[in-house]
Structures are given as structure tokens and as C-alpha cells.
Amino acid sequence: MNETLLQVKHLQTNFYTENGVVKAVNDVSFAIREGETVCIVGESGCGKSITALSLMQLIPENGKVEGGEINFSGKNLLDLSKKDIRRLRGNEIGMIFQEPMTSLNPVFTIGEQMIEPIQEHLLLSKKDAYKKAMELITMLGIPNAEKIVNLYPHELSGGMLQRIMIAIALSCNPKLIIADEPTTALDVTIQAQILDLLRDIKKEFNTSMLLITHDLGVVAEMADYVVVMYAGKVVEEGPVLELFKNPQHPYTKGLLKAKPVIGERKDRLYTIAGQVPNLVDLHEACYFADRCEHAMDICRMKQPVLTEIAKGQKAACWLYEDGENR
Amino acid sequence: MSEALLEVQNLKKYYSASKGMFKKFGDSVKAVDGVSFTIEKGEVFGLVGESGSGKSTIGKTILRLHEKTDGDVMFKGKDVFSLSRKELRQLRVQTQLVFQDPFSSLNPRLRVGDAIGEAMVEHGLVSKREVRERVLEVMDKCGLSPFHIDRYPHEFSGGQRQRIVIARAMALNPEFIVMDEPVAALDVSIQAQIINLFSDLQRENGLSYLFISHDLSVVEHLCTKIAIMYLGNIVELAPKEELFDHPLHPYTKALLSAIPIPDPTAKRERIILTGDIPSPINPPSGCKFRTRCPMATDLCAEKAPDYREAGAGHFVACHYV
């Protein structure tokens, strides 16, 4: 088995708001091995994006990483100085965001924005950096590299810009790419192109990937290992085949059943009643209990712990705890 | 016996692109470029396409929120574009619109009850005294609780706001609703709730929908007939089963194969289209899809394919079908 590249242990990220403390990421642990694609899947507000931002320490000002460890190739990222983290971002860890239109600076050309991180991190001359940028653009299947580098972001389509973002993320040969909903803003046919591209990159460079998404279809296509989050917590995790074949947590089951699938013609869709709880002032309980079909007394009193249920598959649910473990 | 509720004949809507900074005289964006379809009473008609295909423009033009450039739209046998003021007001009651973003389609200063009731009073459907009762009735139908009536939109989540928008549309007892990506902004678990609500309302009230979406899986679930659009034209139109089981147009096939399926063991042939959607200001000659089509030939560049019936109720525009 490949070596572990990133190990997140008991990560805790809190936001201080007028209404109280929001535990956006609440005791989250997972690991990514070399060459592996891990998908974090969940609905809005479940903490998936904040988990990604916590890794890079790009949390908005009213938020704070308040506990846990992020071990990345032998270092705990939470111990690093601002300067060291800066050196890491875009160098060893590349990041791709959801909105390629807003991730690039509108007043600089594509070329300028690509060359800057290459010069900064790889310490190349401007001329060599330019050459490297051209290579990357061509590699990502964008025609007319010479023309593209002189264009401004508004002159390119969303799909093209996302390719540029991927090129920038790849430019310093990162060991890990964090992609936060990289295809959500794109059309289906363009999404297929970008997913294909990400798969090729993974194959060619053996890059590890942390893919954040809400789309179970994308998860099924891309992931090796899946982490399902709900209300700041990991509720289930496991290898992709097992998780889709045999989901354990009622939330995972519900998500899979609620999504309409091409070719499956049902009369009604399965629904998960109610809505995501407010993350302020959560008390000790399973946060999913209010929406769960199987909720028992204990679910409303005590938080279940993530435990191994089947081989390699973990879930945090009282349904799978025998009397002795309670 | 089914009857046509809405008939669209060769509808065109061009926007002038010659204003502002880019003064190239005579340029126009052909957002909708000759589209024909019929929606029958009680039918849920799906309109699918990627961004810029003109699907939202159709939705707005058939309700006369935009003026047409050319073509005909008949609602219940009457030409929508030659209605008198009085008849147009009536059309505003019979037809409703639900947009994608429930955050921007509600007035933040209006309480939920007022937002839902305002149009009912305006159109004289109920007296001011009865309005609250009627609002509560509609809210109940749409899955909102009575205590929500005096709250403001910001107190609600996206899914619940969409319920408010739907209640507002339902309050007028319309016959036809245009839904423009009504679930695109919602999470999966909430999306399923709203989709079921659409089915229930449609069945109970015998409504007809024009359901605009980019998501084929949602359309397959909800619609009875589906049209696929590309750059302002319908490239294929067929009853749901026919379209999904026997897609004919290469674009439809590619779209179907591009949708990620939530099953990691699913094996299928992927058709990955290369390139981007061309600009509607300067679309390719002949068949507009030819620049991305894996089957394109010289003929496709010379001549636009006819939109014709390839099987019973199955229309397609391609030279090689």
C-alpha cells in the first residue's frame, strides 16, 4: 500500500459569529495516501469546504482552527509559521476552486498570473517560467498557447478558465491537489472534459487529490475513498465501491436514494425530511437524529463515534453499536 | 383527449449586440432561432440545454415578458403577442413563473404572507378579508407552517424560500407554470422534497409545466416530453421514454453520456465533446453543433439540417439520423 501523504486528526474549526460559536468542522479525521483521490461529499453547510480551507489555513477572519493535527509529509501544518505555509501553498499543495471566473484577477493576463507562482516557487527566470507556462497550457489541451497567455480572464469561457486554474495548480508539481467543487459551475459536457483531465493528471503524475463535491455522480467517477460529512462531522467513510454498494449510515443511504438517476424511473423520489440543523448551540446528540427514520432514544442523548462496521468502512451511528459499546 | 394549451411556432428572439462598447453594427445574438413545440394540457414539458442555449429566453418570451422577434405563441388558442391589456392581465393570472434563485426572487421587505397574498388581492381574486385564510391554505399545500406567515424571507433556508415562491405562484390558481431551473440551487435532500412537491401540485391541480433545466436526471424524473436545445435551436424532441431509450441526435447522446452516474461500477461508453459552445453572436454555418460533433461532414457546414419527425412524436434535426 502507498504511503500516507496527508493525515488529518481531530480537526476542529470554529467560527465566532454574533449568534454564537459555529463548529463548522467538528472533530474531523481522515487520511490521503500517495496517488489516491479522496472525495469529501456533503450538502451546503456540512463543513466540506471549510475542511479544505483549514488544510491551507485560508479560513476567513472570524474563524479559527482550534484543535487537531494536519500532518503533511512529516510536518504538522498547524505548527508552521505564516511564511512556511505560504511557501507550501501553490507549491506542494495546489488548489482549484469552484468559480474559475472569480478565482483569477481580472486585470492581469492569463500569462502574468501563471508565471508569478512559477517564478515564486520554482525560482525560475521569467523566460523559463514563460516557457513552462506554455508547456502547461498545451498539455491541458488548450490550443493556441501563444495567444491565450496574452488574454484577460473575461475573454475565456468557464471551461477554459478552469483549465487555466488547473494549469496554475499543477505548475509547481504539487504532491496534493485540493479541488473544491471544480466542476459545479460548468456545463455537463464541459464538466466531463474537466473530470477527464483531472483523471489523466492523476494517472500521469501520481498526484494525490482531495476532491470536495456535493455531486454523488462525480464522487462515483473520481473517488478511491469517500468521506461523507454532515453538520461538521464525518458520518461515514469507506472505499468508493463498498460505500456505494453498501452504505451504512442512514444519511448516506438517504442521499443515494434521494438523487434522481438516469434510467431509474421512480414514481416518487425518496426524501430526507426536515433540514440541516443550525450549527450554533448543538448539544450532545447525533446531529442527524431529527431527520433520521431510525432515530432511537440514545441518538438524542449521546453522540455516536465513528467505528469500523465492515471491512474498511466506518460509520458514526448508534444502529451499529451493540449494547457493550454504548 | 389531450388538447394543446400552448403552441409555439417558429419562435425567434434576437437581442441586439450592437449597443455599448462593442459597436459592430448589425450584430445580434440569436438567443432563440426558430423553435416550435406544443405543450398539452396536464403535460410536463422539459426543456434541456447548456448555458446560452436559449432555454430561459424561451420561458420568458412565451409569457410575453420579452417581446418576440418573429414567430407565433398561442396560449389557449389566443395569440399571446396580440392580447389586449385586459387579456394580458388575465394571462398574468393563468400563467406563473418560478425562477432558480429563491434568494433574489423574494422581496426582503415583504412578509411571507404579503408576498403570497399580494397578487391575489391585486387581481381581485379574493377580498382583503379573506386573503389571510387563502394564503394559509396555499402555504399548507406547499408544505409551509402557519406560523411562517408573518416572517421575512431572510429567516428561511433556500429550500423553504423556494416553497414560498411556489406558494406565491400557486396562489393565483394558474393553469401553466414556467419553471426556470427551480431546483438547481438546492441540495440533493431538499431538491427531492421540492421535486415531489411539484409532482403533487401538478397531479392535484391538473397543471402544465414548462420545466427548464440543465439536469437530465431531474427532467427524466419529472417530465413527460423533453426537448433538447443547442445554441437557440431544438435539436431533438421526444416523449421521455423514447428520448432516453433511443436518443438520435449526437448532442443528446453526448449529453446523456456526460452525466456522472452515482454508481462506481457503472460501465459505459463516454462521448466526450471537444471544445466549447460557440458564441451565439457568430454561430457556425450549417448545423450549429458541427464544430463539436464527432460525426460532422462537409454537408453539415453547408446546410442546416431540417427539423423533422423521425418516428412517432420523435423530432430531430440532423443530416445523419
From TrEMBL, chain A:
Domain ABC transporter: 6-256
Species this protein is from: Neobacillus vireti LMG 21834
Its membrane topology: Peripheral membrane protein
Family: Belongs to the ABC transporter superfamily.
Name of the protein described by the UniProt record: Phosphate import ATP-binding protein PstB
Annotated keywords: ATP-binding, Cell membrane, Membrane, Nucleotide-binding, Transport
Major localisation: membrane
One term of GO molecular function: ATP binding
UniProtKB/TrEMBL annotation, chain B:
PROSITE patterns cross-referenced by the UniProt entry: ABC_TRANSPORTER_1, ABC_TRANSPORTER_2
SUPFAM superfamilies: P-loop containing nucleoside triphosphate hydrolases
Keyword Cytoplasm included in the entry's annotation: no
Ranges for domain ABC transporter: 6-256
Annotated GO biological process: peptide transport; transmembrane transport
Alphabetical list of SMART domains matching this protein: AAA
Pfam families, per database record: ABC_tran, oligo_HPY
Keyword terms: ATP-binding, Nucleotide-binding, Transport
GO molecular function: ATP binding; ATP hydrolysis activity
InterPro entries recorded: AAA+_ATPase, ABC_transp_ATP-bind, ABC_transporter-like_ATP-bd, ABC_transporter-like_CS, Oligopep_ABC_C, P-loop_NTPase
Family under the similarity heading: Belongs to the ABC transporter superfamily.
Protein name (database record): Oligopeptide ABC transporter, ATP-binding protein
Species of origin: Neobacillus vireti LMG 21834
